Amino acid sequence: MTTTHPASAVPAADPAAGAAVKADDRAHVFHSWSAQGLIDPLAVAGAEGSYFWDYDGNRYLDFSSQLVNTNIGHQHPKVVAAIQEQAAKLCTIAPGFAVDVRSEAARLIAERTPGDLDKIFFTNGGAEAVENAVRMARLHTGRAKVLSAYRSYHGATAAAINLTGDPRRWPSDTASAGVVHFWGPFLYRSPFHATSEAQECERALAHLEATITFEGPQSIAAIILETVPGTAGIMVPPPGYLAGVREICDRFGIVFILDEVMAGFGRTGRWFAADHFDVTPDLLTFAKGVNSGYVPLGGVAISAEIAATFETRPFPGGLTYSGHPLACASAVATLNAMAEERIVENADEIGARVIGPALREIAERHPSVGEVRGMGVFWALDLVRNKETREPLVPYNASGADNAPMAEFAAACKRGGLWPFVNMNRTHVVPACTVTEAEAKEGLAALDEALTTADAHTV
Question: Is 150 exposed, middle or buried (0-12, 13-18, 19+ CB in 10 A)?
Answer without folding.
Answer: middle
